[in-house]
Task: inverse folding
């Protein structure tokens, strides 16, 4: 029942993960860009 | 070990403790029944918020919305999680459940709690929404219902740990660490215990306050309530990711690529996620900016790191397993040739996508200190948590059901053709619905609001940017698809339990 | 398998791709965290850090005085209201008061574009949620707390104010107005 840890060997997933983090960063700063357009608040 | 209490599962070779199996069945059945109630409520809520239909009158809308939150977020998910905990501790470790009678006591308390909550809400004694923010006050029996349910769930968690201890002591599984799924569920149960203690810390005072024995500060209530409200979602995250690993193995024979990485990520959840509840309070008075940043920024982001690790580890494990089956050409042949017609697999894949790309990203973004000014209490938040807890957790649990039915209920899934379509209806519906909510919310559409068109006849009524109506339609169509998906799930599940062909 | 006991020693080194991903994730988490305090220095939209406890009596006195002092009068000297809610034009750059009550935002404020105001926000009966359309600016108004938002309107017009925290059966009728001239 035991298993050996596999080699990574998942290039497709790696590409998907990079797409994910790029989307993440873009959306995060896009929201700050939108925020910067409203009134000044402190 | 008395042999007659066990059967051997022909598919997995695991020894199944029959009293544990009965408890798993009872909790799973309760979960599905409450999903049905919550789902009917969901249809009522969605068809009211879609201005094209605007189904319910105002008082019933708020009442049904309260019921929807409690039936889904509390009852369906926690009943299912308790079933998963018993399975992770007892079935996966070939062990007997430490004390089945205690398990039935927990079940009874949870059922009584839920009934009390449902009766109070439908009777109009608790028009306070899921959060019951004071000074809004419900009937004391409502708070008591929540307390009973929570105590039941707490007992269930303790029974899980007692079973782990028993299994280890009796050596019912090969010597070594727990399987990854059991480990992940143990992390979920630890978070659950901490969460439920916070629940006691707020619902017991709220109960006493509703009886008139003490005062209640609104800001303090919000702080402690969200220590329950937020971290209860982290039970769901940890349980859902455990289910992802489980389903990866059951559907394509996945092996975790690096156990060290996966397990460390689960530990990060336990250590850091419970603290991050202040992102619900970013535009509240009474808490300093420094504390808000510390709590939601530093600590939450360490927990998000854990999700980012799983976001790579789970699909990578699936990819490796599929490549081993020979789908090795190019970057994505494995993805194209994956068993998309297996509802267990498609539900898991959709769950990973919706949770990560929609729920995860928006959660961190809306929960960052400044952006929250433009997100708090708008429909963006509702869209976010429907991506995480519905498109993510609920869909993953639905996928797992297609394996629990043959393995635990020992029935062949009835209406497999419908079951194959179900995750797609539900998943795509949820993508459209949550997406519509978030985009309409970006224009300021509020959550928990009965009439965004006429504002109940308010003289200050105004009209929204016309784009909003397009997103409202996307929401409405998505909601209908999701309701269809949910209905198929319930029909298939109930049909299988009663009429499915018996398996040996 | 995820459902079976792992090797006795599973604490094994991680592969290159996993290391790269871990590195990227940690860096991004650090940036997205540090961005919040950094934005306090470089950004112009930050949550308020100023709030006080206030009793119902204190708050009522403050708002009554404020409205009495600055309520707008028309040409013939009559007090101006909008849908029975007083319209108040406070001096530029002063302390202004905005109250959430079931189910009104009280009073209607008239502010001047480009001037900075200290907006005192509170509620008297239930929790309310201030939401200014179409800017999508949202803050909580809690009974017992005077939450001070230092606000500089940079656009002019009439801005509806919604309530976005459930406050009872008439919640959806709670709409107010903010005017910037």
Result:
């Amino acid at each position: 029942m035991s298993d050996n840890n596999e080699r990574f060997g998942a290039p497709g997933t790696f590409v998907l993960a990079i797409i994910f983090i790029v989307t993440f960063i873009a959306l995060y700063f896009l929201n700050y860009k939108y925020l910067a357009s409203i009134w000044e608040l402190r | 070990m008395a042999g007659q209490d066990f059967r051997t599962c022909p598919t997995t070779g695991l020894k199944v403790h029959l009293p544990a199996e009965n408890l798993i069945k009872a909790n799973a059945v309760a979960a599905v029944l409450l999903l049905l109630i919550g789902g009917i409520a969901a249809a009522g809520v969605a068809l009211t918020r879609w201005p094209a239909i605007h189904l319910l009158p105002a008082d019933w809308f708020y009442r049904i919305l309260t019921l929807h939150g409690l039936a889904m977020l509390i009852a369906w998910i926690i009943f299912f999680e308790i079933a998963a905990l018993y399975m992770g501790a007892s079935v996966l470790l070939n062990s007997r459940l430490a004390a089945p009678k205690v398990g039935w006591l927990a079940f009874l308390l949870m059922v009584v709690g839920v009934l009390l909550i449902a009766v109070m809400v439908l009777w109009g004694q608790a028009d306070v929404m899921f959060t019951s923010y004071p000074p809004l006050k419900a009937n004391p029996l409502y708070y008591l219902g929540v307390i009973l349910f929570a105590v039941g769930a707490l007992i269930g968690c303790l029974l899980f740990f007692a079973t782990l201890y028993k299994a280890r002591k009796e050596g019912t599984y090969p010597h070594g660490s727990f399987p990854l799924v059991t480990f992940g569920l143990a992390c979920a149960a630890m978070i659950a215990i901490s969460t439920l203690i916070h629940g006691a810390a707020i619902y017991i005072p709220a109960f006493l306050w509703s009886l008139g024995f003490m005062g209640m500060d609104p800001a303090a209530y919000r702080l402690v309530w969200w220590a329950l409200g937020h971290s209860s979602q982290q039970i769901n995250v940890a349980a859902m990711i455990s289910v992802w690993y489980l389903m990866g193995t059951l559907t394509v024979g996945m092996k975790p690529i690096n156990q060290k990485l996966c397990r460390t990520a689960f530990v990060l959840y336990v250590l850091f996620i419970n603290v991050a509840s202040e992102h619900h309070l970013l535009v509240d008075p009474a808490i300093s900016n420094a504390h808000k940043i510390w709590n939601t920024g530093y600590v939450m982001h360490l927990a998000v790191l854990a999700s980012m690790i799983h976001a790579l580890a789970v699909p990578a494990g699936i990819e490796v397993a599929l490549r081993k089956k020979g789908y090795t050409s190019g970057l994505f042949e494995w993805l194209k040739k994956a068993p998309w017609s297996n509802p267990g697999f498609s539900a898991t894949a959709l769950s990973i996508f919706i949770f990560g790309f929609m729920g995860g990203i928006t959660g961190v973004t809306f929960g960052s200190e400044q952006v929250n000014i433009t997100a708090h209490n708008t429909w963006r938040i509702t869209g976010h948590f429907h991506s995480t807890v519905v498109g993510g957790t609920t869909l993953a649990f639905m996928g797992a059901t297609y394996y629990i039915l043959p393995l635990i209920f020992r029935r062949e899934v009835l209406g497999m053709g419908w079951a194959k379509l179900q995750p797609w209806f539900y998943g795509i519906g949820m993508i459209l619905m949550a997406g519509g909510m978030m985009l309409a919310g970006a224009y300021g559409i509020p959550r928990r609001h009965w009439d965004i068109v006429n504002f109940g006849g308010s003289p200050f009524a105004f009209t929204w940017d016309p784009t909003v109506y397009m997103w409202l339609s996307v929401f409405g169509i998505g909601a209908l698809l999701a309701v269809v998906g949910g209905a198929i799930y319930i029909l298939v599940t109930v049909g299988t339990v009663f009429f499915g062909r018996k398996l040996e | 398998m995820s459902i079976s006991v792992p090797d006795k020693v599973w604490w094994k080194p991680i592969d290159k791709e996993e290391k790269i991903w871990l590195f990227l994730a940690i860096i991004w988490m650090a940036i997205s965290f540090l961005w919040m305090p950094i934005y306090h220095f470089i950004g112009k939209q930050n949550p308020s850090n100023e709030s006080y406890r206030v009793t119902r009596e204190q708050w009522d006195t403050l708002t009554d005085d404020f409205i009495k002092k600055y309520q707008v009068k028309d040409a013939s000297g009559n007090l101006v209201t909008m849908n029975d809610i007083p319209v108040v034009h406070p001096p530029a750059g002063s302390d202004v008061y905005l109250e959430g009550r079931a189910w009104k935002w009280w009073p209607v404020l008239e502010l001047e574009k480009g001037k900075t105001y200290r907006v005192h926000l509170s509620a008297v009966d239930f929790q309310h949620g201030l939401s200014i359309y179409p800017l999508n600016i949202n803050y909580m108004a809690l009974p017992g707390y005077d939450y001070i938002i230092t606000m500089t309107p940079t656009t002019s017009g009439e801005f509806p104010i919604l309530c976005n925290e459930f406050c009872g059966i008439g919640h959806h009728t709670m709409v107010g107005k903010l005017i910037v001239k």
